[in-house]
Specification:
- This protein is α/β, with parallel strands linked by helices.
- The protein folds into two domains: about 240 residues, NAD(P)-binding Rossmann-like Domain (Rossmann fold, 3-Layer(aba) Sandwich); about 100 residues, Rhodanese-like domain (Oxidized Rhodanese, domain 1).
- Helices cover about 35% and strands about 15% of the residues.
- It contains 15 helices and twelve strands.
- The strands form two sheets. Strands 3-2-1-4-5-6-7-8 form an eight-stranded mixed β-sheet, with helices on both faces. Strands 10-9-11-12 form a four-stranded parallel β-sheet.
- It is elongated.
- The two termini are about 40 Å apart.
Length: about 375
């Protein structure tokens, strides 16, 4: 694909020395490095994901980095937010991050936006930038980013981490080759806020893995090198250190709108059944909103972890199949692990969209 930004001009000798390892890359070279030098990238969130994104983009040679964050550094941030140190506790994250980036590369231009981004100011904040990086941790901010970027025609490099799991994608309504997808096209309307790192925990180094991947996607978009993650969702499991890829169809319907009933799940072809047992699968929904999957047994993940299981689950034979579902597959994976540890031998974790697709194939 075409690069997002034109080259600024020839690199000076100091820039060439610093970027020497980039200049040796096949298909990269001085032209791509000069594009990075002229690029303007705004990163929303200077926390667990924003830290590695900002560090790698600054070190890579991006000319201007905007930082949007209204929070201050807390001691509990230091386990994963590696831009900040003990001496920064209590300081605004934008100021702490800016100081760290200037220490890393004095030439980088840093613009501090020490405000909370929302629907009222997102578009104005993004004007003048070439690319948006969504490293935030709330749905309200995420949807405000998506809407403003779509209005401006800007691509968004998005990532998320919760617990052991991460996801990365590029959303760009104006993308070429029919790969134009916005965040809401895949995940549907804005939901209520759910789990966060404060309640579910997060593995610190997993933020580094996902954040570094987001930085790679940004570099590819800015320079026109490689194949960005447009039209596909990258998922990371830190437990096994594996990445998977989920192709995304343009205009994919909301998972909640297409969630099938338990009866539909029971109509799957025999070769796709999760167990050899003849018992109808029991679908357990651990999503944030009860009733999203008609006919399923809804349970809170926290209750399952505490051993408080619904009667329908307790009555389900240990050798009979269980299918656990949620919006994005993160909570269902944890719930499946809990149920397997409790003795059920045939448990599968799915996202709503996967359950819908499975039912559609065998309807």
């Amino acid at each position: 694909m075409n690069p997002l930004v034109p080259p600024r001009g020839p690199l000076d000798p100091a820039e060439r020395r610093r970027a020497a390892r980039h200049l040796l890359l096949d298909g990269f070279g001085p032209d791509a490095q000069a594009r990075l030098a002229s690029a303007r990238v705004v990163v929303v969130g200077a926390g667990g994901l924003g830290s590695p994104v900002l560090q790698y983009l600054a070190a890579a040679g991006v000319g201007t980095l905007g930082i949007v964050d209204d929070d201050v550094v807390a001691e509990s941030n230091l386990q994963r937010q590696v831009l900040h140190g003990t001496g920064d506790v209590g300081a605004p994250k934008t100021a702490s991050a800016a100081a760290a980036l200037r220490s890393l590369r004095p030439e980088v231009g840093v613009v501090e936006h020490a405000v909370r981004l929302d629907a009222s100011n997102a578009q104005a904040l993004f004007e003048g930038y070439d690319l948006v990086v969504d490293a935030c941790d709330t749905f309200a901010t995420r949807y405000a980013i998506a809407d403003a970027a779509a209005r401006l025609g800007l691509p968004v490099v998005w990532g998320t981490v919760l617990g052991w799991d991460g996801q990365v994608a590029v959303w760009w309504s104006a993308a070429p080759d029919g790969r134009g997808l916005a965040y809401a096209d895949v995940f549907g309307p804005q939901p209520a806020e759910g789990e966060s790192c404060e309640t579910a925990g997060v593995l610190g180094p997993a933020c580094g893995v996902v954040g570094a991947t987001m930085a790679v996607e940004a570099v590819k978009l800015l320079t026109g090198t490689g194949d960005p993650a447009l039209g596909r969702l990258l998922t990371y499991d830190a437990r096994t250190s594996t990445w998977d890829e989920i192709p995304l169809a343009e205009g994919a319907p909301s998972a909640r709108e297409t969630a099938p009933s338990t009866t539909e799940m029971a109509r799957r072809a025999p070769e796709t059944a999760p167990s050899a047992a003849e018992t109808t699968p029991l679908v357990v929904d651990v999503g944030r909103i009860a009733g999203a999957v008609p006919g399923a047994v809804w349970a809170r993940l926290e209750d399952l972890a505490a051993g408080d299981l619904p009667d329908a689950v307790l009555d389900h034979p240990l050798d009979a199949p269980l299918v656990v579902v949620c919006e994005q597959g993160l909570r269902s994976r944890g719930a499946a692990a809990i149920l397997a540890a409790d003795g059920w031998r045939d448990v599968r974790a799915m996202r709503y969209a996967e359950l819908a697709a499975l039912a559609a194939r065998h309807a």
